[in-house]
Amino acid sequence: MKKDNHLLFSKMSMKLTENDVTDERLFKQRRRFIKSSMALSLGAYFPQWVIASTAALSAQFTNRKKTSIGADLKPHSMEDIARYNNFYELGYDKEAPQRNASALKTDGWTVEIAGECGKPGVYTLEDILKFHTFEERIYRFRCVEAWSMVVPWLGFSLGDLLKRFEPNSKAKYVAFETIYDRKNPLPGQRRKILDWPYREGLRMDEAMHPLTMMVTGIYGKPLPNQNGAPLRLVVPWKYGFKSIKSIVRIRFTETQPETSWSLSAPSEYGFYSNVNPNVSHPRWSQRRERVIGSLFKQKTLMFNGYADAVAHLYQGMDLKKYY
Ligand SMILES: Nc1nc2c(c(=O)[nH]1)N[C@H]1C(S)=C(S)[C@@H](COP(=O)(O)O)O[C@H]1N2
Ligand SMILES: [Mo]
């Protein structure tokens, strides 16, 4: 019997109260409210809807149970986040994933856990998600192509999930794979643009780092297919291609796993691929980034702004090399 993920998610999101996540509509209203308060002097007339929404807004933004991670960042709109994508399985131009989103079927999703651990097996999505507390974290997201966004992800620390499978002492790395059905490939998988399935990996300490996230939603709603439904990785200090989408397999390994982009162009896309403005891509600079939906470029930050939290993981490594 197939499980409907949307049913599963609606059960799951019922556990989240309204105050736990950023509702995009309220977020926009709040900004409008702030703008209008600045524009109007004290005692000036406020339109009724502004007054009516203020109580809900203050509850939404002061009482929600969410981490403060990224509270200072302004997230992009859902339209931007769900329209401008890289998801080669669903096509190669930026809007193709949205166009072809319905080709990805997420009903009855399972994740195989394999390799160096005590609890290998095939788990349903429900098995994977139960026991976890969902939280919203607003992260910077920096693609290796030198564009960036800010996204309010919903999910939990990957480490909390991995621990449940009892990785053993040989587990030095974690490998991830995206859905690939040879007999029924997704539109973008009919050509061998990459050696399918899309594969990614992390060193164990990177995978267990509390900032590394297993993501199931954006703006408090289930992930759009084009953003990697029903389950994806987000590693905010690494270039976007490390954040593999629509995961069906997780394997604990003793040796560094092969990763799709390194296989396809090893001199351009390394295993580590930490965001680093001081090391150019062979074909372009990484100093600055184009902010999606804006005319401006901004400076790229070391480790995408997460250096305080993650730099210690790379002590002794030569950060001038392109990893
Ligand atoms: N399976 C899979 N995962 C993927 C990709 C892909 O093509 N296939 N693209 C990567 C790249 S290059 C980026 S920048 C991000 C984009 O995530 P977004 O579309 O949610 O912004 O997904 C990453 N994960
Ligand atoms: Mo990317």
Layout of secondary structure:
Elements: H1 5-15, H2 24-39, H3 48-62, H4 78-83, H5 96-99, E1 110-115, E2 121-124, H6 125-129, E3 135-142, E4 147-157, H7 158-164, E5 173-178, E6 199-203, H8 204-208, E7 213-218, E8 221-222, E9 232-234, E10 247-253, H9 260-264, E11 288-291, E12 297-299, H10 307-310
Parallel strand pairs: 1-10, 4-11
Antiparallel strand pairs: 1-2, 3-4, 4-7, 5-6, 5-10, 7-8, 7-9, 11-12
Helix pairs in contact: 2-3
The protein binds ligand MTE and molybdenum atom.
Ligand MTE is lined by residues 85-89, 143, 178, 198, 227-228, 240-241, 243-246.
User: Poorly predicted ranges (pLDDT <50, ≥5 residues)?
Assistant: 7-15, 37-65
In which range does the helix fraction lie? Answer: 10-25%
Number of structurally distinct domains: 1
| Nearest-integer average pLDDT | 86
Which CATH architecture is right? Answer: Alpha-Beta Complex
The biggest beta sheet, please? 7 strands, mixed
Taken from the alpha-carbon principal axes, the silhouette is globular
What's the CATH H-level superfamily name? Oxidoreductase, molybdopterin-binding domain
Rg, alpha carbons: 20 Å
- Beta content comes to 15-25%
Number of strands: 12
Number of helices: 10
Give the termini separation.
44 Å
Provide the CATH top-level class: Alpha Beta
Features:
12 strands; globular; 323 residues; 24% helix; binds ligand MTE; alpha+beta; binds molybdenum atom; seven-stranded mixed β-sheet
